[in-house]
Specification:
Chain lengths: ~150, ~150
């Protein structure tokens, strides 16, 4: 993929990632550090919870969602980070053996009023499992550099 | 802390966590797996970015926020997981050596209309650094069990 900048995106653009298979070991490792609740940590005890087995921490699924999107290369040249994320929704459990991929769609584009070298793009990220079911949606606010040659400040 | 259930919370209740010191190694390890952007991964190249040095992935700070809150024990007996999170805001960078703690405040309480054994509580989580500055805020929607003896369904 050639280098993309703020100016290259338009509303409706979609970018599809490759996949990742989530293992039991990865789920438990993440939960040990960041979300040690029984349904993320203990495959036996998890059978007695409403989830009826081990599921990935939602924070794990979020982090994988962004990682998969990053691998598309869309943000490689232009990312200045992010001030936040909205409307994170965990729609279905992610279980050991599930394979996830992500689609990021441009839903809003706002040039900065105060800094001419950048702008904000809102992406709706949707994370799908191997059955095509949505497991997570969230809206990321990404601060992106404008294409250098088009910047009035340079 | 004694076991808490949905019925034990009231709007305005606040719960303060212990602290955690975030190291350069932890920041880079997390970024390698989930957010391999230059300002999270490469301490030298990060000097040339707007952040002027290495900063933690926002997904790392989020996960630590929830981990610290979990350690208060508030959710230990009653957590049924979460359908989502709203209004994640990364307010200041988290840098190697920063020490974080979290305050969770109850901002809304809604008994379930369809399931008498549970309800939803919205917590506003605020993550502070060692200077008392807010580095992250977010609103978590937590599905919680009602106290068993008070449940009409049992």
């Amino acid at each position: 993929m050639s280098d993309l900048y703020f100016d290259d995106f338009k509303v409706g653009d979609q970018f599809k990632s490759g996949g990742i298979t989530v293992t039991e070991g990865q789920i438990i490792d993440f939960a040990m550090r960041y979300d040690p609740q029984v349904f993320h940590l203990d495959a036996e005890a998890a059978k007695g919870t409403p989830y009826r087995g081990l599921i990935a921490s939602g924070f794990h699924t979020m982090a994988l969602t962004f990682r998969l999107f990053l691998e598309t290369g869309v943000l490689s040249s232009c990312s200045l980070g992010s001030p936040g994320i909205d409307e994170v929704r965990w729609l279905l459990p992610v279980r050991p053996g599930d394979t996830l991929h992500v689609v990021g769609e441009v839903i809003e584009i706002r040039p900065s009023k105060s800094r001419f070298d950048r702008g904000m793009i809102r992406f709706r990220y949707t994370n799908f499992n191997q059955r095509g079911e949505k497991v997570l949606t969230m809206i990321g606010n990404q601060l992106l550099l404008r294409r250098p040659t088009s910047s009035p400040s340079m």
